[in-house]
């Protein structure tokens, strides 16, 4: 099967290496179709496209949009979008404008836990201050010796519902899907197994997304266990979603899988790339 890795991050959001380096790593690890999908920005796509083309790897311009659905921060991937689309650009700029203030609030919550200097510390880890996020706080907490690992920082302070987590305002589901479709892309629910919903609310996300014209769901991802892959493969078949595959790479040595290292999609699913022309 095609080695498609359609979810990864660079220093333009909360990844640790720049787009050209992510491209080289993806290529070296056998990726044939690669998407850079930074959070809420298209700014890394030009560098990524140039690097991929030099390597002879098919590049899929993408973005991971932060939305708020029923009080939970959900991620919608826009795959194969036109980076020049003005409405998508404007919508993302609007999301970014709320991130800095939210980071101040996370800093305040950490101070209430007895941890000083969180906001300034996270800011030092963010290459792009308008994309400051929880990963930068996690890096600060590890650097400052408060936590042993990033995972521990999320478990103790930053994960959904934990003491220092402030939910991203983000866009609405309606807006995100409309921007993606308007930019000629495919809307895909990222890592559906990760959201802390009760089953009924999770299903209402899937049906609302489907009704709005959302096409796909991430099935094989570094965020899912094998059981979750099987579970969401069933959901995709039931709703008629196309299936995506992406490592959600952030940094060498971090996360469960590296670029290009995922298992194939389960059988009986239509891959999101089935109607893309490339190569
Ligand atoms: P933000 O956009 O600031 O809400 O941060 C979300 C990012 O934090 C995600 O894209 C992941 O990179 C990371 N993240 C969220 N939850 C976890 C977790 N439980 N463990 C590790 N990383 C996480
Ligand atoms: Mn991230
Ligand atoms: Mn995500
Ligand atoms: Mn991601």
Describe this structure in words.
This protein is an alpha/beta fold and 279 residues long. It has a domain at 96-158: DNA polymerase, domain 1, CATH 1.10.150.650. The chain has ten helices and eight strands. It has helices at 19-28, 45-55, 86-96, 99-112, 118-125, 134-143, 150-158, 173-182, 199-211, 226-239; strands at 4-5, 33-34, 58-59, 62-69, 72-79, 186-189, 216-221, 242-246. Strands 4-5-6-7-8 form a five-stranded mixed β-sheet. It has a three-stranded parallel β-sheet with strand order 1-2-3, covered by helices on one side. Helix 5 crosses helix 6 (134-143) and helix 6 crosses helix 7. The two termini are 14 Å apart. Bound molecules: adenosine monophosphate (AMP) and manganese (II) ion (3 copies). One manganese (II) ion is lined by residues 7, 9, 64, 248.
SS elements, strand count: 8
Helix content: 25-40%
CATH structural class of the domain at 96-158: Mainly Alpha
For the termini, the CA-CA separation is: 14 Å
CATH fold call of the domain at 96-158:
DNA polymerase, domain 1
> Shape from CA axes?
globular
pLDDT averaged over residues: 97
| Count of discrete alpha- or pi-helical segments spanning 4 or more residues | 10
Strand order of the largest sheet: 4-5-6-7-8
The distinct ligands, each listed once, are:
adenosine monophosphate, manganese (II) ion
Q: Please give the CATH architecture of the domain at 96-158.
A: Orthogonal Bundle
Task: List the helices and strands in order.
Answer: EHEHEEEHHHHHHEHEHE
Instruction: Summarize the main sheet.
Output: 5 strands, mixed
Given as residue ranges, the uncertain stretches (5+ residues, pLDDT < 50) are: none
Radius of gyration: 18 Å
Structural class: alpha/beta
| Beta-strand proportion | 5-15%
